[in-house]
Amino acid sequence: MTDFTGFTGNVITDADFKVTGDGILDDIMETMTKHVQAQFDRGSITGVEYSSVYLGGMQAALSTATQLFLGGETAVAKADLIKSQKLTEDEKVSLVNAQTLGFRTDAKQKVLAKMMETWAIYYSVAKAGAPPNSANTTEIDELKDDIISDLGGITVANDPIIT
Q1: How many structural domains is the chain composed of?
Q2: Nearest Cα to 25, choosing from 47, 3, 7?
Q3: pLDDT in tens, 47-73
Q4: Is 163 inside any structural domain?
């Protein structure tokens, strides 16, 4: 349910019949009443015209206050929607970044596995000579360190291969 305290609230009528309040309608009515009274005091509006002018001003004030009040409610709702959409967009970006990291790390793991397979085959067949460049332990160690870095670093106690 809509809270109308921003529209009109704390309305007080004093001994001189001056009406005041805290809402949008109250502020507009107070200003409109002062303008109409000023024109009446000046003589621009006579007694007969006063009620027509006041009624017209009251209708305009009510219409304007309603538009401002509902516009404010709409603006708040739109701001909330935009904020929730932004969070959704940020979550999408985070997901894409995580997927990209996962794909990159998966590719590195496959390269590392192929390097290790190549080295194992070479070693089991040749058992002599220099290993191929893809089986260079420095390259393998660098790739392993790069994968571990991508994953945020892992440690396995007493494991000479991973640590």
Answers
A1: 1
A2: 7
A3: 888 888 888 888 988 888 888 777 777
A4: no
